[in-house]
Specification:
Elements (H helix, E strand, L loop, with lengths): L4 H14 L57 E3 L2 E5 L1 E3 L2 E3 L15 E3 L2 E4 L5 E3 L4 E4 L16 E4 L4 E5 L1 E2 L8 E2 L4 E5 L9 E7 L8 E2 L2 H4 L3
Antiparallel strand pairs: 1-2, 3-6, 4-5, 6-14, 7-13, 8-9, 8-12, 9-10, 10-14, 11-13, 14-15
Length: about 220
């Protein structure tokens, strides 16, 4: 018996070796591939909107020659001119030194036959009436004191005389309408700086026919 024992052990060993061994699974185990996380879409960054810079309002520089011979410190508007401006000299007796003494006035004062409104040179003047443009000579020959290009507008009831104007846009015989531009202001013939001289006369008369123009000038 002991003589066959090695042989039996050898047979047992061979039988175990010939048994089916566990074969590896030919299907590869999928590797844990991380899922592709989509990159966040870049946020649409709005372009900065430039802040609206307000345009500076033109500042009217005072003419150093302006002299105000009235207690009225209000800046007035009128359909006859652009902007708001102060009255330099009113109608009637005035202490302004540009006029000879008038017997109607006290303290050796002179008489001013219109209204002077201080305004920068080049201020637009517009007509507030319908009328016909007059030749200066037909309105009493205003003279050099009214500047190089004075002109009048006859409304049918009165003559409106505009002094110290330049770049006049109308000509004698033209018919003007309310709101029509007529000239630009200047300092022509004006020792006290750029301004509008606004005068109203009875038709065809000179200084003796001048009347208070405040109602027609319509200051507000």
């Amino acid at each position: 018996m002991w003589r066959w024992l090695p042989a039996l052990l050898l047979v047992a060993a061979c039988g175990g070796a010939s048994g089916s061994a566990a074969e590896p699974d030919p299907t590869p185990t999928p590797s844990a591939t991380p899922s592709a996380t989509p990159s966040p879409a870049p946020s649409a960054t709005p372009k900065p909107t430039p802040s609206a810079t307000p345009k500076p309002t033109p500042v009217e520089r005072a003419d150093p020659r302006w002299r105000f011979y009235t207690a009225d410190r209000t800046s007035h508007s009128s359909p006859w001119f652009a902007g708001r401006h102060r009255v330099m000299i009113g109608f009637g007796c005035t202490p302004a030194p540009y006029y000879d003494h008038d017997p109607r006035c006290p303290d050796r004062q002179g008489f001013h036959h219109g209204i002077d409104v201080a305004m920068p040179c080049g201020t637009l003047l517009t007509s507030a009436v319908d009328g016909v443009v007059l030749d200066p000579s037909s309105s009493g020959s205003p003279g050099a004191a009214y500047g190089e290009r004075p002109f009048g507008i006859r409304t049918g009831e009165v003559d409106v005389l505009i002094g110290h104007a330049r770049q006049v846009f109308v000509h004698p015989g033209d018919r003007v309408r309310e709101g029509q531009r007529i000239a630009l202001s200047s300092d022509s013939g004006a020792p006290d700086g750029c301004h509008l001289h606004f005068e109203v006369r009875r038709p065809g008369t000179g200084l003796s026919g001048a009347v208070d123009p405040a109602g027609l000038l319509q200051l507000s």
